[in-house]
Amino acid sequence: xxxxxxxxxxxxxxxxxxxxxxxxxxxxxNPVLGKQQRARLVKELMAARRAVRDAHGDPAAMAExxxxxxxxxxxxxxxxxxxxxxxxPDLNRHLVKNTHYARWFEDLQDHA
Length: 112
Prior knowledge:
By secondary structure, this protein is mainly α. The protein has three helices and two strands. Helix 1 runs antiparallel to helix 2 (59-76).
């Protein structure tokens, strides 16, 4: 679950591209997705994650379940090509302290 930039512990970056968990940036879903499309993709992601959990001991089932997770995350915009168009790089999974968001995040923590 993400929050806005004033809602800790998972604040959104000011540009809305990432939320932060334990000092790491995680790309958010594409905000242009329609409500129904997003709901369908989230439902598929959750089903795929359950399939990962249930595939314990079955390498073929695990590989297929992980493929489904990845496909859902790409469709949501959380992986794969970025959904923004200004040429900014993808900082998914980067430590916030090593990005241009570092000062903003420090200030946010100072005010929390």
